[in-house]
Amino acid sequence: MATRRDFLKTGTAAAATGIFFCGCGLLRGAHAQESTRHTLPVTVNGKRVKTIDVHAHCNFHEAGSLLGDEGKRRQAGPINGAEETFIDLKQRLAAMDAQAVDMEILSINPFWYDKERDLAAQIVKIQNEKLAEFCASHSDRFAAFASLTLQAPDLAVQELETAVKKQGLKGAAIGGSVNNVDFSDPKFHPVWAKAEELGAPLFIHPRGIPELGKRLAGNGWLDNTIGNPLDTTIALSHLIFEGTLDRFPGLKVIAAHGGGYLGSYADRSDHPCMVGPKGCNPEIKLKKKPTEYLKQLYFDSLVFTPEAIRHLAAQVGASQIMLGSDYPYPWQLSPVDHIFASSSLSDDQKADILGRTAAKLFNLEA
Fold first, then answer.
1. Which letter does DSSP use for residue 147 in this model?
2. Which of 50, 52, 192, 222 is the most exposed, having the fewest neighbouring CB atoms within 10 Å of its CB?
3. Residue 169 CB coordination number (10 Å)
4. Contact present, 172 and 107 (Cβ < 8 Å)
5. How is domain 42-55+99-361 classified at the CATH fold level?
């Protein structure tokens, strides 16, 4: 857990905005792998490509302070690199340069869904204001997803509209569910309707599955290793099978970590209502096969290997994949390299994944 002394060591750029980033030893890892890494500027077949990482995290001291010690624990957490938590802007840009990332779309993992309405709204307000301020000051390198008080959908609708129309934020980051209520629940329909109206992408980042805590205990950090991808898989499957994506066909959804397990075993989803019809609601008549909905969703490229990229692209289409690193968590310290190493992709497809698709989706300068 970082101390106040650690915070006081941070640079003036970060202190000015109250933003902090987790270092997690990325720069050390970058030097160790320097010989195999791509560097800025990135080119594909001789043409410059602006690389855009749609999966990068941050937090703000001001928001966490509303929860006291709990907020500090949730924001920093006992993860690799927690001792390096508070990194200033100069350090962040150096890390991005080391990753060959031109721009990050910042997001904050929701830690406020279980809080009462007014407190959660204060947290979200601070975060969105700070994100907007920070990105406006560094618009060449950063954009951001808004936070939403999803446990209060009426507030979330207002927050999303303010974020997109007034604060210049690029959609919203959401969890995998809200207090064990899945996103297909009708209570969330007004939020999805507003996102569809605004053309605002929603970035689903899982928060694990607490009810599986006992089975996921033990070696391997299974709560994250298995639990997070499973959380995303469940979230997307409910959106598909409950007809939510039919109800909101223009909804733009981005799934972290390559969409969890769904992209790896999607074809099974086309068969359950034939094998076990009693497990399917006859009143919900999907407009197409479950696997076909994947081609209208977006996925980040955080699947680690060229073979995994090949398979994901075969399942969902290369046009639906965008660069993602999960920075500052050191899951994939060379996020562009496995894209370049994917012999299954054409040069155009590589350029799209590296940044062109995100530039179009978020209305950013390519």
1. P
2. 222
3. 25
4. no
5. TIM Barrel (3.20.20)
